[in-house]
Amino acid sequence: MKPIFQTKFGAPGGNCFAACIASVFELDSAEDVPNFCYDTPDGKDWMEAASNWCRERFGFGLFTVRAPEGADYDEQARYMRNFFARSHAYMICGVKTTRGVLHAVIFRDGKLVHDPYPGGSAIVGRVVDFTVFFPIDPVAARASTTFACPQMVPDNPSQRHSADVSA
Known about the structure:
Layout: H1 16-24, H2 36-39, H3 46-58, E1 60-66, H4 73-87, E2 90-97, E3 102-108, E4 111-114, E5 123-135, H5 138-143
């Protein structure tokens, strides 16, 4: 994972999600990834567009889990944190900030490892959704000489933060 910072800010129009994808795939800029949240044509599912883009370029799809309305969120967060802590996978998490917007950040092993907002965001509340990368063809992903699986790329300990998925 190579930390990439967002270049567009605010809602609508911020590209924090694109910056997270660029970070996981170690691209040079958030501008290398379409701003799916805002640039997907009307009537199209932007997450599906993002997953298709990742699949076509890197052989990975995206899967998002969000607690349904009225669900016991603490129980779901605990389950997701425990599951992903064992997988060592990078995941993009939606969090609320003091700016009052939903913001995308990267977690690994249940800990925040990158916030694409320059200088960091003031995160409030809990993670509201989890987006994980999965290989479309696990054998091809493992055998690739040009790209390591997102869950296999070594983490840079100096980039770790102390935030927790349940925070």
